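PROTOCOL LOG
Step 1. Enter all chains and additional molecules of the complex.
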Amino acid sequence: MADSHTASQYGLAHHFESMEQQREAGTLGMWAFLITEIMFFGGLFLAYLLYRSMYPNDFAAASSHLNWPLGFVNTIVLICSSLTMALAVYYSQIGKKRLLLLFLAITVLLGLTFLVIKAFEYYDKYTDHLIPGFLFDWEGPGNPQRVQMFYWIYFAMTGIHALHMIIGIGIMLVLIYMASRNRFTPEYHSPVEISGLYWHFVDIVWIFLFPLLYLIGAHEAH
Amino acid sequence: MSEHIVSRKIYFAIFGALMVLTLITVLVARVDLGVLNNIVALTIAVLKATLVVLYFMHVRYSSRLTWVFVIAGLFWLGILIALTLSDYLTRGGL
Amino acid sequence: MGTEALEIAPPRTHYINVAYGVKSWLLTVDHKRIALLYLASVTLFFFLGGAFAVGIRLELLTPQGDFVQAESYNRLFTMHGIVMVFFFLIPAIPATLGNFLVPLMIGAKDLAFPKLNLLSWYVYTIGALLTVVAIIMGGVDTGWTFYTPFSTNYSNGNVLLVGIGVFITGFSSILTGLNFIVTIHTMRAPGMTWFRLPLFIWSHYATSMIFILGTPVIAITVLLLALERIAHVGIFDPQLGGDPVLFQHLFWFYSHPAVYIMVLPAMGVISELVANMSRKNIFGYKFVAFASIAIAVFGFLVWGHHLFVSTQSIYAGMIFSILSYAVAIPSAVKTFNWTATLYRGSISYNTPMLYAFGFIGFFIIGGMTGLFLAALGVDVHVHDTYFVVAHFHYIMVGGTIMGYLGGLHYWWPKITGRMYPEGWARFAALVVFVGFNLTFFPQFLLGYMGMPRRYYAYPDEFQVLNVMSTAGASILGVGYLIPMIYLIWSMRYGPHAPANPWGAFGLEWMTSSPPPTENFPETPVVTWEAYEFRPYEETEVVGGSGVEEADIPEPGPRTRH
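Step 2. Run joint prediction.
Step 3. Record the structure below.
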């Protein structure tokens, strides 16, 4: 193991003994952070679970007004972005800078696509008066208060998810900048890997949000 | 311990599986199966999440410590939900 | 012997004098300097929280509500709770002593993420400042527990602003916990296996587990509270189909483990003090280590005991009650083991040890009364009375703050390179002990007799005990002010301390006082077990440089080659 007084390796922080230790610490650190994210979203999933069990029919009626085809497209978009992110990590591992940059850029574009589609969805909710606490007006079947319950959960969960997407895109842009400055090598590329972990996690949250929010009432004709 | 590089073939295979599973989710949701709808939807979601965690997030090739972290996070979410449900499910008249 | 291999002479350059200027402190990434930044902040908030306590105790001198108005009283006890819990007790030991000592104790140069460490202090400060702004604007009157629907629908206080402050400061906890866990896993010096770690490290690892797993839930809870207060969508409002008890479940899922965040680090300090001040290995080291983890894990399973009378299902109440009894077991294991360590030990009755004794005694009382509260039937009688208030103050003040002060004194020479005046310190410890008992023991009696908490007026027959409590509080306040004075005094005028003034065991004592920025000139290699004391000629080790370093046959560190 390297002594701190000897010439330091590229990318090795002063307080670590080796690249191995640094990489292990970085990965564990990101996983520890992702655990906090699991618990953070977990509180929302709990609220969803409880209120859906209490008001199943109202939730189904409310959910049927969500645009599930758009949600389906968004799911595909995010899964594609996970693939491109994984490929970006792959190319960083073997030091192929151009392909790394390409796949980071595609990941960003896919992320932006997701957000644009989400924006359209939100806009539709606005025109349909389905934003709780903001001129909410429900005309369909079911108890309006309980339908509103669904919608605040929908906005809270997808809104916080979208916020995480925005942060993720920001992180990708930083990576693109760093990669374009030749900061990554096959020995030092853990920022790419660690950001990948974050990106995949945000994808996983959506993997659960889509069926739970969009597909409850999908089998009923409306 | 040198870093394990997952091949692109595996990434594409997992991607394919995720696409198929997403399609199945939507198709099954269009059919009324009663309580089975929820079970199928959640099972598929868990399966998709597992594939992402194991392969895209490299947990399949990671140290045991990483596994412990992942499982601990999920377990704690379980505690939050299970013990809270222990209240709501036993209140009677919900 | 390896002592000739490591020079532990008084240092010319150490982490404090290596650079001067405000920027070198505000932009530092040295964990030791960050610890001092936190020390300054938490001390400030301790006295702010104490000021609110003064208001409370002054009002309670008389049975009538005559010092302040009812709503003002509500704001007093709320701000006392919020400031003390979130801005003092939770960060106090981990962010000051923990930040300073974790890398030293494991033989590392710094924590795993030094910049995140600095960020955590800034995040803490920003959240704290927001809360101070909220206080200036009148504070909050909901109780630190923010129960709905009062906090969401009816309170006139600055709920949102305080909520945001708490939300932001929570991230500081998460960053600290993340840093500790990763550091302890990946940066232990060669030879420092898990079971050679000081028990202080085990406690902080357990605390960090709670930081990571619990804090996010209070974050989402505060977010939902804010959403409800702004939009009134019905999350916790029964009139709109929501359940106010859901708030309580979410709130206490974090806030119960939070009390273990507050006490586990103090227990870690006590383990160090008991072992080192009796010059014996802790009795049942592995049991104590695992008990720390057990407390952290079990602590997540008991939150429903705060909801016994909330309309929570009686069956859930039974489950939570049994689990609450279970969580007492590892705490008891620790207490028994500390006591067994003391038996036939060579005990030094100095200030840190006095605080440790105080901790053990008060923690037993606080812990046992916790068991009273865990019994469903008893809790129905004493819930929301002063019995509960006395219980948690015994743990948090009699426990955590004693542990904090004991640790602060014990590691003061290491942190500052100076010794504090032992005479004054022992006197202050005694004043704290007397003041504490006089303040809080009467509250057990008051609660049992039925005096509710959070009331500013009470029946006449409770006055005598309330006056005793207020008198005790004033003595306690003096007891806390004295160390403030002499500790600050000692930083300038105290005698210089050697590397190991206590003849204590641990890597932190094998580097200079204060340590250099990189902690150790050479990375230590650990070849000895935890607390492996060896007998040597008994000399007076307190204060000054009365002991020659070379005379102590310590299991010295071997340098790397």
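Step 4. Note key features.
The CA atoms of residues 11 and 512 of chain C lie 6 Å apart.
Confidence is low (pLDDT under 50) at residues 1-8, 537-554, 556-561 of chain C.
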